[in-house]
Design brief:
Elements: H1 3-6, E1 13-15, E2 25-31, E3 34-39, E4 43-48, E5 55-57
Antiparallel strand pairs: 1-2, 1-5, 2-3, 3-4
């Protein structure tokens, strides 16, 4: 799991580096390296944190 993904907590806002059209989503959970994110244009997506490093947004 990406070190940065390990810091993600519910409520944090993130984007997927390979799917910019999904928009900025909100982390729902981060359990055992699997990060569930609710994206405005893709819905709820479960991401394997060992394969994808999500990009946090601090607005």
């Amino acid at each position: 799991m990406s070190e940065l993904n390990a810091l993600l907590e519910p409520g944090m806002r993130v984007s997927h580096p390979q799917e910019p059209d999904w928009g900025i989503g909100q982390v729902q959970s981060n359990i055992a390296g699997r990060v569930t994110v609710n994206f405005p244009e893709a819905g709820k997506v479960v991401i394997d944190g060992s394969r994808i490093a999500l990009i946090p947004h601090f607005d």
